[in-house]
Amino acid sequence: MLAEEILLVNDGSLLLKMMGGLLENKGYHISLTDSPEDALILLSTRHIVLVVMKLNGQQSDRLAVTHMVKELNGGTKLVIMGESAHLPAAIFEVEADDYILLPCRSSEIWRRLSSSLKTAAPSQPTRPRKELVHPLNRRVLNNLGLMFHDVRGHLTDITEGLKILDRRTQGRLGQDVDSIFQETLSKSRSLIGMADEFLKKFQVQEEVLNAARLVDLREEVVAPILEELKDDLHKHRITLDDRLTLLPPAKQVVRGDRVALKSVFRKLLRNAINYAGHGCTICIEMNEDPRYFRLRVQNRGKSLSSKHRQEMFTEERTSGGNGGGMRLGLHLGREVLRSQGGDIFCESGQQGTNFIMTLPRA
C-alpha cells in the first residue's frame, strides 16, 4: 500500500516544517512548498489526502489555491492555519475541514491534523493517466497549444519576410524593401501582443478567482482579428464581405474566454486566407437562435473534399507541410470551444467551404 501523501503549503515558518517531520516519521509522504503555483501542480497530479495551508494575511494567490482543493480532488481534507488577527474574513467562506487559529499548542495542532487524517480518503495504488489531466489542466494545455500554434504561424511569416529582405538588400535598397520590412515589423508587434495576452492568463489569481466573463463576439473577437489580419487580406487581394456590419447594434454576448475565442477565430480566418486563393472573397456572417450564436467564415475559393473535411479536426501531426499544423490548430480550437459549451465544424457550401463556430448565448 502506498504512503498517504500530505501537502503542506508553508509561508517559510518553522511550525509546518516541524509538523512535516513528525508526520514523515509516522510513515506519511510529505510535500512541502512555499509556492501556491507548485501546490496547484501537486494537487492536479497527485492523490493528496490532506492539505495544510498556512496563511499570513491577505494573500490572494493562497486564497485561490484553497478554493481549488475540493474541485481538484473532492476527497482531500483541507486544514487552514493562521493567526486569527491576520486571517482575512474571506477565508471562512472556503470549504475547509478545519481551521487552526494560532497561537496554539503543538499538541493541539497534532491532534487536529491526526483527526483529519483519520477521515481522509486512502491513497489509490494507481491512477489512470487520463485522470491526471483535470479539466482545469486540459483547458490550460489547450490554450497553451493554441498560443504556440499562433506563435508558429507568425514566426513562419517573419522568417519568410526576412529571407526576402535579405535577398532584396544586396545593393538594391528601395521602397519594396522598406515595405517588406514594415510588414515584418508589424507581425513582430502582433506576435508580442499575442504572447502578452496569453501570459496574463497564467496568473493564479486571475485563472482561479475570475469566472469566465461576458464577451461581445463582434466587438471583442471578430473586430480585433480583422484589424490584425488586414495586411494579410490586402496582400492576397482578398475581398472581405463582413456581414456583421449589417447586424443591429445589439451585442452578441457569450460567456467564455476572450483570448481563446480570439485565437480560434484567428485560426479560421488565417486558414481561409491561406487556402481561399489569390483574389477570392471571404464572407463572415452570424446567425442566432434562442440558445446559440453561429459565427460563419466562408471561403469562396476551392471546396474541400469530403475526406479532407473529415480529417480537418484530427489531432494527427505530420512531419511536412502545413496540413498537419492546420489540423492540430483546428483540433485545439474545437477542444477549447467544447470546454466553453460550443463547437466548431466544417461544411461545403455552394461556393467554397464554411467553417462555423457555435457558442451558447450568455
Explain the overall architecture.
The protein folds into two domains: 5-129, Rossmann fold, CATH 3.40.50.2300; 135-360, 2-Layer Sandwich (Heat Shock Protein 90), CATH 3.30.565. Helix content is 48%, strand content 20%. The chain contains twelve helices and twelve strands. A hairpin with a 4-residue loop joins strand 11 and strand 12. The two termini are 48 Å apart. 28% of the residues are buried. Mean pLDDT is 76; it is low at 123-133, 202-211 and 317-325.
Descriptive tags:
five-stranded parallel beta sheet; Rossmann fold; alpha/beta; Heat Shock Protein 90; 362 residues; 12 strands; elongated
CATH class of the largest domain: Alpha Beta
Over the alpha carbons, how many angstroms does the gyration radius reach? 26 Å
Biggest sheet character: 5 strands, parallel
CATH superfamily placement of the largest domain: Histidine kinase-like ATPase, C-terminal domain
Secondary structure tally: strands? 12
CATH architecture descriptor name of the largest domain:
2-Layer Sandwich
> Per DSSP, what share of the residues sits in E-state strands of 2 or more residues?
15-25%
Chain-averaged pLDDT: 76
Can you tell me the CATH topology of the largest domain? Heat Shock Protein 90
Unreliable stretches covering 5 or more consecutive residues: 123-133, 202-211, 317-325
Distance between the termini: 48 Å
H/E topology pattern:
EHEHEHEEHHHHEHHEEHEEHHEE
In one word, what is the shape? Answer: elongated
Determine the structural class based on helices, strands and strand pairing. Answer: alpha/beta
Numbering strands along the chain, what is their spatial order in the largest sheet?
A: 2-1-3-4-5
Proportion of residues in helical segments: 40-55%
**Total tally of structural domains:** 2
